[in-house]
Amino acid sequence: MSPQVVTPAIDFQVWLPSKVQQVEAMLDHVLPAADAVPGRLHDAMRYAVLGGGKRVRAALVYAAGEASLQSAAAASSQQIALDHAAVAVELVHAYSLVHDDLPCMDDDTLRRGRPTVHVQFDEATAMLAGDALQPLAFESLGLMPIAPALVVQAIQLLARAIGSQGMVGGQAIDCESVGRTLEQDALQQMHRMKTGALLEASVLLGGIVAGASSIVREGLEKYAAAIGLAFQVADDILDVTADTATLGKTAGKDAMENKPTYVSTLGLDGARELLHELRDDARAALLPLGPSAAQLANIADFIVMRDR
Amino acid sequence: MSPQVVTPAIDFQVWLPSKVQQVEAMLDHVLPAADAVPGRLHDAMRYAVLGGGKRVRAALVYAAGEASLQSAAAASSQQIALDHAAVAVELVHAYSLVHDDLPCMDDDTLRRGRPTVHVQFDEATAMLAGDALQPLAFESLGLMPIAPALVVQAIQLLARAIGSQGMVGGQAIDCESVGRTLEQDALQQMHRMKTGALLEASVLLGGIVAGASSIVREGLEKYAAAIGLAFQVADDILDVTADTATLGKTAGKDAMENKPTYVSTLGLDGARELLHELRDDARAALLPLGPSAAQLANIADFIVMRDR
């Protein structure tokens, strides 16, 4: 065996923007040009995907990849595969926002500080842009230059995470529960599906690409479950504590629409307490992974501390 | 080499219903039960997929599989893979109909003789049902028990066929062209994407699963291009010659909305002439494949003669 060289962890304040830049360059490359036919559709797809965003899901792919690599230096094929996986989860996330913002769903007009896609274009174009981003995500995974069996595993994982028993199912439960009070268990189940499933898939995709051992995968799964929930709890807190300008989307909307949230169920202090417990759970799950999981730990902190 | 036994072609009138039954049993099995959470979403997905339909795309998968097999008897793993591929294309087709029927698109209230999904349920549920059928299609392909490299190839093929430069792109061009006159070239390009891309993918998926040789694939591609267009020409003719009860969807809608069609561009006689030319092209493309392509030839006839 070659000696394992542990590279010093790069400062998160440097690491995160570099990964954001990396996935955005790839997204720009993967999305068809706005002058390719049909232009209006491609324009809308680019508007939806390239309009900013925290890129937390892409960061999770890269960080989980770093944490799972068998040797300190990833093979270049693994690096390329991580890029494709990061692109895939960001494409799916963008599509889900476009559809969630439509009038028949949340009817939102503001996203990332700009008009939502159906406001900027039109409803039909927004729906079709979302519909076309989804297969582009699977195509991106299909391009990963790693063992085909791992590619298939990655595609299965993403497909399940975003289907009727994952992301879209959570959205459906959310729609059905407007104006009703959900028990904390039901609320948790809804969020695990709606937001948690894709966040968890992002972490596990990084692990699959990097050939994570079963011990590492177990740690990643526990970590992913904790940060998946933490993300939603933080979102619910921000909905009541932040203003619209900072959020880049309409603040106070959940309360206005009488949507069940962690804050409405636990109160603001209770929600904050839960958030910190989840961060501790996430960090504890990473212990068996050692220092290579440093950026995953930093992302857990980032999710808890974020102000938008 | 073992001697090649050519089984006599089964009568198409027996073959087609047996394949329809086969894929419908698989679809029923693959779709989550209506009592699985979220029930309303699963109910809508089942309503969208299991409500009849000609199952032409599934039939193309099976027929292309039969035509491409290296020996007369397919391995059972190939048979199972063809089932999964047939399920995938029918799920995609069903999702595309649900979204096309939405008020922001074609605003149709009748499909296969029943209320459309958003009429039977609601708009949000219809959109989410379509959104969830799409990943289920990719999951189904991912389950094919054949070489993983072929699975990845199949997934890439489907993803490209239904993206912004395939099915969804064609739909976007169709939306943009309402009330305008398209040149025949532009009309053909739109239909190649909107309807042809998934029909062609169905044929090629059957070939991939069955390990088609390059000569066979070439024949399949030419066949697929011809029947892809033929299908749309037949649709346009039926829109003006059939009544709503026979079609199971609103007849005369294209003309009413001033949509460009083959009939509006070529006239009824010109469209019928083109349809028969395309059938001849399709049959000619099958010649190198020999008698195993009998059902593909029959499907070409079926597309030309259908009355709904």
From TrEMBL, chains A, B:
Keywords: Isoprene biosynthesis, Magnesium, Metal-binding, Transferase
InterPro entries, per database record: Isoprenoid_synthase_dom_sf, Polyprenyl_synt, Polyprenyl_synt_CS, Prenyl_diphosphate_synthase
Domain of life of the source: Bacteria
Coiled-coil spans in chain: none
Cofactor: Mg(2+)
CDD domains associated with the record: Trans_IPPS_HT
Keyword Aminoacyl-tRNA synthetase in record: no
Record family assignment: Belongs to the FPP/GGPP synthase family.
Protein name listed in UniProt: Polyprenyl synthetase family protein
Species, as recorded: Yanghanlia caeni
Lineage, highest ranks first: Bacteria, Pseudomonadati, Pseudomonadota, Betaproteobacteria, Burkholderiales
